[in-house]
Each structure stands twice: as structure tokens, then as C-alpha cells.
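Table 4 source record.
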Amino acid sequence: MNALNSEAFTLFGQHILWSDMVGNLFGLAALALGWRRSIWTWPVQFLAGLILFGAFFGHLTGSAGKQAVVMLVALYGWWQWRRGTGRTEDGHIAVRFATWRERGAMAAAAAAGTIAVALLFKAYPTLSWDPWPDAYIFVGTIVAMYAQARGMVEFWFAWLLVDLVGVPLNFANGYAFSGFVYVIYGALVLWGMRDWWLRSRKDARPVLEGAPA
């Protein structure tokens, strides 16, 4: 992992690490695969989390912990999409808008989780340089991935809200490549949001496994 944590190149005065670059490129690929509703989005997200865990471990413990949770949620997403009962005629996971109850539950979980994690980061300053925005991104990422695992269009809205904080935070902490990737994330999120929004109308009546099409 020492080789991955070495400097790849310098861009606009920012030192780009191999681990930062490779991990975020995998993360970008995972988001693109998620837009295509490919189950391979989950192993790619797991690999991205593993690489970024190595990048952060030892000096940004909070960010490393975030990646560990990301890997666990990626395993959940893989399991959920493998066993998913709602599928379209092309065999991909069906997408839908969340119910108001689900939206309320996710919003409440995001708010409570952000406060709890931020207080943890403040109690242990070595876990994070910026407790509140880091906690917001941490919890927002988990909520977004959960919504993705459940095939909810709100997955894209959650990612967009994460991007709004992730871009400046990564640049401020010296992870320039992560910041640039988050900018690309934003464009891909808008594209994916439109695609899932339109598909949610087509997938309103998914084909159930074992049922005739």
C-alpha cells in the first residue's frame, strides 16, 4: 500500500496520490455502473472503498472508517440486488421513487446520524479535520448507497447533496483529485437522475421473479 500512497503527479499545486486517484476513478466507474443498473457497481464500489481506506488509514482515521462502512454497505447492495424481487423485463433492477414514509425515515436517519458522527469526531479530534462536513458526507454517502440498494431514484438526490459539500472539503484537505472527481460526480449524478426518473415510470410494474412477463 506504500506504493499507492506515493505521489503520482502535481496538479495546480496539489499533490495527487496514486491511492486517491485510483480509488476515486473506481468510485466514478461504480457510479456509472449504478446509472446503468449493473450489479457490478457494488464490487467496484467495494474495491474503491478498499483502496481509499488504504489512502486515509493512519492520518485521517475518520475518513478511513467511512470507507470501511462504505465497503459493508456495498456488500449489502450486492446482496440486495442479487436477491431483488423487483426486476424489469431486461433483467435489471427496477427503479422507483421512495414513498413519503421512506423519505422521512432516510431524512431523519441522515440528520440524526450526522449529529451523532459529528459529535464523535469532535470528541476525538484525530478522527477528522472538519467534523461537521465530514460527518455530513459520511452519513450522506451511506444514505445514498442504501437508497441505491433499494432501487430508489432519491439515491441521485442524496449524492447531489453530498457533492455540494464534498468538493470544497476535499480541496481544503489536500485531496485535489477527489475534489475533481466529485465535480464529475455532479455531472454524472444529474445524468443518472434523469435516466432513473424516466425509468421509474416504465418500471412502475416490475416483473416479479418466477412470474410470467
